[in-house]
């Protein structure tokens, strides 16, 4: 079977035919750049999720077909290819964006899109979910404009980037020693001390990620995550050109924003203005969850809850889609519904 035929089958399966539902993909101007947005849900009256993808520049739109359909029965889900990411990368000369690849601009884009969602779909508040890099801009957007959001959910939450790098590296070294992996130890020792006093380079980070992934820190109990990296090839939303743009956007964005990411530290935030939940992968070594747990215990919020995903690492929605759905329905949906009732 050809990939176009497979994509067509997946597209037909995922088609929302319920008259009360919504399925639309569109470009819209956000922060002066045309950006792609994907909205899906079985009932327009359901609460709306704005999902902020990770990376940076690693959209979930080309993999949402793998896990999102059950969530769409209880929520309307808005995915978004952020500036210089995925299909949005193809909408502008990348170098015209050089001065806009910074955390503040991504936060402003998030706020602008949340306001657009309110106007377009008639929602009082939006559920904000961030994954990995998306938790950086998500947390800041919620702090800047809490009135826009009913609840914030962090998946693979970043608290302190340098702490993340240190714990990830130590985990990889420990596992390499345990398994007597000479190749891994040689490559990891070659970049020591890590992260060190100066900002780690992309090349050094790639070495750490390579072995963290091998030891199950990206997708639990797996030495690789091909199911995730190759899934865009079957996406109904992405053609070959868009799939190729994924790596291009990732390299372009990371080169420009890495120093700012590495300086990130949320440990000093003691008060959070809206309900907050953290979905934490027990085996996550990309954004180690222990730091999230420690921070959540200290922060004051109208409501807070940490949920452990015992069979997950960093890709929680793909690794435990059932528990992801149940957790969203049980804990997040009531907060969002209550917020809409008091509009």
CATH level 1 name of the largest domain: Alpha Beta
Helix content bin: 40-55%
Note the overall shape. globular
Distance between termini? 50 Å
Rounded Rg:
19 Å
Mean pLDDT: 96
Count of alpha/pi helices: 12
- Counted up, domains total 2
In the sheet with the most strands, the strands line up as: 1-2-4-3-5-6-7-8
Give start-end ranges of low-pLDDT stretches.
none
**The named CATH superfamily of the largest domain:** Alpha/Beta hydrolase fold, catalytic domain
- Structural class, please? alpha/beta
What does the model show?
The chain has 343 residues and is of the alpha/beta class. It has 2 domains: 3-160 and 239-341, Rossmann fold, CATH 3.40.50.1820; 162-229, no CATH class. It contains 12 helices and 8 strands. An 8-stranded mixed beta sheet has the order 1-2-4-3-5-6-7-8, with helices on both faces. The termini are far apart.
